[in-house]
Amino acid sequence: MEAWVLTRYADVLAALREPRLTAGGARGGTELDRAAHLRFRARASAAASGMLAEWLERLGPLARDMARALPKDRTVDLVGELAQPWSAQIARCLACPGGDPDRLAALSGDIFAAAANPRDTALQARAEQATLELAGAFSGELAAFHVQAFVALSQTLPCFLANAWLALLDDPERAEMLRAEPELMPQAIEELLRHSGPSRAQFRRAAEGVELGGATIAKGDRVALMLAAANRDPEQFPEPARLDFRRGPPRHLAFGEGRQACIGASLVRAASESATAAFIENFAGARVEQPVEWRGGFAICAPASLLVSRCCTAASENNRQPAVTDR
Ligand code: HEM
User: Fold this and answer.
1) Which CATH number does 4-235+249-318 carry?
2) Distance, CA 152 to ligand 1 centroid (Å)?
3) CA distance linking residue 182 with residue 131, whole number of Å
4) Ligand 1 centroid distance, CA of 254 (Å)
5) Of 271, 258, 62, nearest to 186 (Cα)?
6) Ligand 1, atom 11: nearest CA belongs to which residue?
7) 32 lines ligand 1 (CB under 6 A)
């Protein structure tokens, strides 16, 4: 990667908070100046709150109706038949683009593929074109934010749901706990973001020399901030591979931290609570039917499909294998 690779929680957190490590270039764009970035964040945060207020009441019923409508007598793909179409629908409603839905989905898929594989120059070039075309579907000064929101809702959100549901399918006790105590859902989503957050890495470049974790990062050096590794740092999270809905601090880094932290975090939390409640109601205790194949790449990854069946016989229970799968 020709980069410093940070995996410890303390180092990743320090890097996220370090103003001399900038996101410009690594994201394929230029770093906005500080004041412009703050203005962007203020306007984008207000837009994200507006989306949330408008849609909060409709997210849950929509997820529940879609989950209930899935057939019980055949294998169901929880990604292709629930997480993706539900997320696509809320992306279209929340971000309100004009244009052909299939084309918009293809464009956001191209942008997602490039974000997941930041070293793939062909994907980056394709994503630049896709971003321009997708921006044309939105109007107003917040078009850039709407592109990000549309891609995040239609691509990153279903990745998180797929990761989270796979973790719950692999840990039926925790799924049952959530079914019995639905009030645990907000804590469960936080723990699932820590355990199974889809964004594995963010990149920075040093605008000046920086001392970090005992190393000297020279001006111009590239730095990979491994969010997923930090979220499983055993020094911060004992038994990090275990789901524990009652974990205390520190906070996970699934949404980043500091001046570039995710603007859609509240939206993702609310949406994930609704969708996961629908998943638990209908699929807690389901079994995964095939080894999981993954989509994405180094920076973001999640199951491409999640084939589950709800008709478990005693024989099939005896043959039950854990589905996972370390990413
Ligand atoms: C599960 C879904 C999501 C995950 C895991 C996620 C994760 C992240 C992370 C880790 C960052 C920090 C990037 C960095 O430090 O360089 C970020 C930034 C951002 N996210 Fe999200 N995000 C998600 C969904 C969303 C949604 C739904 C929206 C919009 C509605 C959104 C809007 C943004 C924006 C605008 C930024 C850039 C903030 C800035 O440049 O100041 N994200 N996201």
Assistant:
1) 1.10.630.10
2) 7
3) 39
4) 9
5) 271
6) 262
7) no
Q: Which of 136, 133, 84 is nearest to 110 (CA)?
A: 133
pLDDT along the chain (327 residues), means of 10: 94 96 58 80 94 86 96 96 95 76 92 95 96 89 90 97 98 97 98 97 95 96 97 97 95 95 96 97 94 94 96 46 49
- 167 near 259, Cβ under 8 Å? no
Q: Which atom of ligand 1 is nearest to the CA of 153?
A: 27
Q: Are 83 and 305 in contact (CB under 8 A)?
A: no
Axis-axis angle for helices 265-283, 157-169 (nearest 10): 40
pLDDT of 318: 42
Ligand 1 pocket residue status of 263, Cβ below 6 Å = yes
Kindly report the length of the chain. Answer: 327
- Cross-strand bridge partners of residue 201: 226
pLDDT of residue 92: 84
Rounded to 10 degrees, the C-alpha dihedral 258/112/157/27 comes to 0
Residue 175: predicted pLDDT: 97
* Sign of the Cα pseudo-torsion (230, 5, 221, 300, in order): negative
What whole-number distance in Å separates Cα of residue 177 and Cα of residue 186? 13
State how far the Cα of 164 lies from the Cα of 169, in Å rounded to an integer: 9
Does the Cβ of 52 fall within 6 Å of ligand 1? no
Determine if ligand 1 sits within 6 Å of the CB of residue 212.
no
Q: Is the CB–ligand 1 distance for residue 143 below 6 Å? A: no
Q: Would the CB of 156 count as within 6 Å of ligand 1?
A: yes
